[in-house]
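Example 5.3 — Luciferase domain-containing protein
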Amino acid sequence: MFTLNLPDRPGPGPRTRGPVPHGQLDQIAPTPLQEELWQRMRSLSGVYLAPTHVPYPEARAIHLAPEFGTGPDDAFIRQSREFAHQHPPQDGSLHMTLPPDVKKLVTEAGWGIPHPIQNTQLVFGPRDRDEIEVVWQILLRAYDYARGRIS
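Solution (predicted structure tokens):
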């Protein structure tokens, strides 16, 4: 059993836009933190880089090779192998697929909001070193979900 203990995200949530494109408008993650998070994302076992399956072509997406990804259909975006993407630097947020209980935790703790029309969760970009670790833990739950390790 994988647990996720999320601290409450400090301060008010950022302004967002959407549903298409769905993203973050302020409290933007510093570019070095965005890049660090991206490097971590792309280094996960079984992950490959490919274009996103959503109408935000500047987003950088990670997909999971079939032999690694045995999660349920809703662990992937639009019947693809994509389970997460990071928006461009002027936004810095991420979308990822998460199990319903994790989505609820993320929303209640103020780390993100559900996408209004897709099965993904918008997770706000990390504003500092502490927050990158929290966002990373949330991303690892998306990875575990896509791998079929949690439901």
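Remark. The chain has one domain: 29-147.
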